[in-house]
Amino acid sequence: MLEHKDDSSKKALDYSKFYGGKVTVAPNVPVRSLDDFSIWYTPGVAAVSKIIESDPELSFEYTGRWNTVAVVTDGSRVLGLGNIGPEGALPVMEGKALIYNYLGGVNAIPLPIRVKDEEGIIEFVKALEPSIGGVNLEDIESPKCFNVLERLRSEMKIPVWHDDQQGTAGVTLAALFNALELTGRKLRGARIVLFGAGAANIAAERLLVKAGADPRDLIVLDSKGILHPEREDMDKLLLRNKWKHDIAMRTNGDRISGGLKDALKGADALVAAAGQGPDMIRKDEIAVMNKRAIAFFLANPVPEMLPPAAHAAGAEIIATGRSDYPNQVNNSLLFPAIFRGALDVRARTITDTMVIEAAKQLSAFAREKGINKNYIIPTMLQWEVYPRVAATVGQAAVKEGVARKKLSKKESLRVAMEMIEHSRKVMNALRRNGIILDPPE
Amino acid sequence: MQIRRAKKEDLGSVADLIVRTKKLNNEFDPLFAVVSDAKARAEKHVTASIDAPDKLLLVAVEGQKVVGVIRAEMHTRLFYEPHQEGLITDFYILPEYRRKALGNDMVQQASGELKKMGAQIIVADVPAQNEIANRFYAKRGFRALTNLLGKSP
Q1: Which residues of chain A does B28 touch, with a Cβ-Cβ cutoff of 8 Å?
Q2: Contact (CB<8Å) A229/B24
Q3: CA nearest B17 in A: which residue?
Q4: What is the mean pLDDT of residues B81-93?
Q5: Residue of chain A whose alpha carbon sits nearest to that of B92
Q6: Which secondary-structure segment (H or E) carries A240?
């Protein structure tokens, strides 16, 4: 495994230098002769500008705004690397933009920015609004990311998404739906422990409750232990992290206090998003869970506990964030499709209901293929899942009343298929014609 | 929920809540750093308050559980009228019991008791930076009377 990582690191360094950037701006219109510039640019373009001036919403029809997403970070919490600054974050944002393009047909622009504080991020993203159809916030530290997302969602008229919150939580939910199904449980009534109270699990708690879980059956832990209303630091949380404070108030109906083992006694499922393993969680902690236990270890690159150890301790269904174990809970299953669907209907926002519907579609797809303990969620290779999830998201946006363009389910699916297939065709054509070269050996 | 005078058996819990108040104040201002033996000091402080005729110690209880405390004492204002003031020195409610009008009820009840003890005005001592406490009292008609200014030497 270590060799595998070293190999991909070396290739990443060599190839990144060879290509000098993973994405590029490419034309979308023909240039038959230089005369065409009088259409695409001045003087013809002035007519397009004037019509948009009269109704700025037309910018979604006459420009590429509708299919453009900004991938914005301040570089304050990049992967497991911490605060590495905006330049350090750029390769990651480029990679994200590439996935958006290849799996979702979305034009994504990597934009790491140098700002002082959360107000700086908010101001920048709001200023971008006229040029883009959506925003993907990425790798912004907690709790700053909660404030930024909440403010931007309420103050902007385009979807703002924080993948470390909604993306991870959405895919987790999809995997959990099928794990519960396989072990004969319902979400309502399942005792679920969320270990780690960062971006992913704070959002997971909210989505779980909106999807039907009883908050009293959820237990959330941070680095200081189980969250409950009488914890010593509750007033501090009230002032510094109201999201965690509110979770402490509404979850943990039995008012359990203590550590992970106390939380796991009699628990049905564990979702760990707590930090690098492999020894963050012990076997004796997993062993006190209910029979047919579900355990997700989402830290990358090293899960909080390795699957063989969790299995030996009694966990039946295990998922991680990694591709070299079964059941990869991977954001890339969701965000390209979420934005594909949202952009196709020109959504004003991405509601929690849209995310839950997307998660349900992801899990339904896996169920159709036949779920088992090693297959509770689709893989990235099953690309046909993307247009299906996109169409579901588009329909949910229409139902929620946040869509500017009301496509039918059939139209949503058709547009999503076309857009995603188009991206794949472009990639194939560019490679076939030697415009994108294969990397040097 | 019952609001009543504190009894001896309440004092351990009351001291805990008093320490929480002080720690909350520290969240707003580093000049309110809480001493390491705050609990022992708080126990002394509340024990001395329980039977003193010029002090008031009220608790809110749910069953046997103390969920809120308010401590006040009578002061004489040497140069000003009205002379007698009832000063609320400490006030805390556990997070789970907030936003249920309990705070309002406790301040009302404390004000009534202080009035019976001779108070002509009710004042509350809160850190200037504690915006939660300031907002709470302002909503109930309190206004700033003095400003205690401070700095490290």
Answers
A1: 239
A2: no
A3: A232
A4: 97
A5: A235
A6: helix A234-240
Per the annotation, the verdict on A102 as an active-site residue is no
* Of B20, B23, B95, Cβ closest to residue A249: B95
Secondary structure of residue A160 in the 3-state scheme: strand
> Which tokens in the block code for residue A347?
């959504």
Distance of residue A254 Cα from the nearest chain B Cα, in angstroms: 14
Are the C-beta atoms of residues A71 and A109 closer than 8 Å to each other? yes
Nearest Cα residue in chain B from A255: B96
ipTM of the complex: 0.89
Residue numbers in B near A244 (CB within 8 A): none
Of B28, B95, B132, the CB nearest to A234: B95
Residue reference for tokens 């909350």? B24
Whether residues B96 and A229 touch (CB distance < 8 A) is answered with yes
- To the nearest whole Å, the CA of B49 is away from the closest chain A CA by 24
pTM of the shown model: 0.91
Give pLDDT tens digits along chain A (441 positions): 444 557 889 999 999 999 999 999 999 999 999 999 999 999 999 999 999 999 999 999 999 999 999 999 999 999 878 899 999 999 999 999 999 999 999 999 999 999 999 999 999 999 999 999 999 999 999 899 999 999 999 999 999 999 999 999 999 999 999 999 999 999 999 999 999 999 999 999 999 999 999 999 999 999 999 999 999 999 999 999 999 999 999 999 999 999 999 999 999 999 999 998 999 999 999 999 999 999 999 998 899 999 999 999 999 999 999 999 999 999 999 999 999 999 999 999 999 999 999 999 999 999 999 999 999 999 999 999 999 999 999 999 999 999 999 999 999 999 999 999 999 999 999 999 999 999 987
Q: Would the CB atoms of B95 and A245 count as touching at under 8 Å?
A: yes
CA A238, distance to chain mean position in Å, is 27
Q: Give the integer Cα–Cα distance in Å for A6 and A179.
A: 33
Instruction: Write the DSSP symbol of residue A166.
Output: I
Q: How would you list the strands of the sheet with A269-272, edge to edge?
A: A225-226, A218-222, A192-195, A269-272, A293-297, A315-320
A16: CB partners within 8 A, 6+ apart: A22, A91
Q: Rounded distance, CA A354 to CA A349, Å? A: 9
Four-point Cα dihedral A24, A28, A34, A37, nearest 10: -100
The DSSP line for B66-106 is EEEEEEEEEEE-SSSSS-EEEEEEEEEE-GGG-SSSHHHHH
A399 part of the active site = no
Residues B87, B90, B95: CA angle, nearest 5 degrees: 140
A236–B94 C-beta distance less than 8 A: no
| Cα separation, A175 vs B50, whole angstroms | 57
DSSP per-residue letters across B16-60: HHHHHHHHHHHHH-GGGPPPTTHHHHHHHHHHHHHS-TTEEEEEE
Question: Does the CB of A229 have a partner CB in chain B at under 8 Å?
Answer: yes
Contact assignment for B27 to A234 by CB distance below 8 Å:
no
User: Which of B20, B27, B96 minimises the CB distance to A249?
Assistant: B96
